[in-house]
């Protein structure tokens, strides 16, 4: 009686034609249930321990597509920012050029002052009052000048002694070498009479006086207020007498802008 020999997968002639074949399993012992798991034997030459090169190419392709999309989104933003920068730069250059043209075309010049006459009035029991008449010229052909005094910021001095305080009036000068004449009043201190040397009416002893004026000024073109500066005026002059019919013998007036 011949013995039956079970063929293995390697000895089975049919395995030559099938690369993968399921292993024949014996039925489970009594009392054990058949599981749903299957065991499949695969030849070692078909088991890939490293992903195939095709997978890397696919991943790289998707990555490059994502990078390209992000780059396309960033490029328009950079273009807009560059255009905005160019526009702002052009505007800044135009404004700078306009300011330079205005500054050199409308450079403010200080007004010119001169003293026309001086008279003193003194009543008994009252402080002396000095009436000073000034002539002001605007040397700016294209700009008007506005004087905005803020208090008793002007004074009249005899030598080193201040004999009266006054306020420069608010005044608007039109453009174009215009001239105005103004009257200023300087009030002395009560109880302080005129110095004796000022009462000397002899022509050989002229009276030397100094007039100091401080006032803010605004230079404007049409309705535009271009410059606001502080003005200081100092006039040193001599008169023949402090009474009626005063004559200005000589004078030197200087105006500064700050």
TrEMBL record:
Entry-linked InterPro entries: NDR1-like
GO biological process: defense response to other organism
Main location: membrane
KW Membrane (keyword) present: yes
Entry keyword set: Membrane, Transmembrane, Transmembrane helix
Residue ranges crossing the lipid bilayer per the database entry: 80-106
Protein name: Late embryogenesis abundant protein LEA-2 subgroup domain-containing protein
Organism of this sequence: Hibiscus trionum
Taxonomic classification: Eukaryota, Viridiplantae, Streptophyta, Embryophyta, Tracheophyta
